[in-house]
């Protein structure tokens, strides 16, 4: 009877400067070299970038689950970083963030979207391939170990999506 009060939904929206500290925290959960809240504050305030966040909300709470940072240059763009809290992985948050970014870029008439992904990240590779990204290049030894610092250097796959 009262179940609708507790339903959670995930919304994709622009990051706010007040989100910078939490974005840094999430980045630290996902990557060995975490970016500072100052780094995220600069991205949010720079017209060449945009940052989208995924917020889980219900009538009581709002919680950040992930984010994507995108840089635009003329008619091309690059995913600078994307991260989802470990507890939210596999729930479609990453896909929603990517789709939100792609909608903005398509509206702005961006032709191509690029990203780099570790060859040892099968979940990310599966997501990007399902979204029609194609590998166009690679950078051997680009990553100095897995995201949390374990393992030997690995290859970054450079992927591209034609948006229009």
Major sheet attributes: 7 strands, mixed
In angstroms, what is the radius of gyration?
16 Å
Helix coverage percent: 25-40%
CATH class wording: Alpha Beta
Subunit organisation of the chains: single chain
| Estimated share of beta-strand residues | 35-45%
User: How large is the count of helical segments?
Assistant: 4
**Which spans of ≥5 residues are poorly predicted at pLDDT below 50?**
none
Q: Return the structural class.
A: alpha+beta
What is the second-level CATH architecture? 3-Layer(aba) Sandwich
State the end-to-end CA separation: 47 Å
Number of strands: 7
How are the strands ordered across the major sheet? 1-2-3-4-5-7-6
H/E element order: EHHEEEHEHEE
Q: For this structure, what is the CATH homologous superfamily?
A: Gcn5-related N-acetyltransferase (GNAT)
Shape assignment? globular
Tell me the CATH topology. Answer: Aminopeptidase
**Domain module tally:** 1
- Calculate the mean pLDDT score and round it: 90
């Amino acid at each position: 009877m009262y179940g609708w009060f507790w339903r959670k939904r995930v919304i994709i929206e622009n990051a706010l400067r007040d989100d910078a500290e939490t974005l840094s925290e999430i980045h630290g959960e996902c990557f060995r070299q975490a970016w500072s809240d100052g780094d995220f504050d600069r991205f949010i305030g720079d017209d060449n970038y945009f940052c989208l966040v995924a917020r889980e909300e219900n009538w009581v709470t709002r919680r950040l689950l992930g984010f994507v940072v995108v840089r635009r240059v003329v008619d091309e763009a690059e995913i600078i970083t994307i991260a989802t809290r470990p507890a939210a992985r596999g729930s479609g948050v990453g896909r929603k963030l990517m789709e939100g970014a792609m909608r903005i870029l398509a509206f702005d008439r961006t032709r191509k979207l690029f990203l780099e992904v570790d060859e040892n990240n099968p979940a990310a590779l599966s997501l990007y391939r399902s979204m029609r990204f194609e590998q166009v290049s690679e950078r051997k030894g680009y990553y100095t170990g897995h995201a949390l610092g374990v393992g030997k250097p690995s290859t970054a796959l450079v992927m591209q999506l034609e948006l229009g």
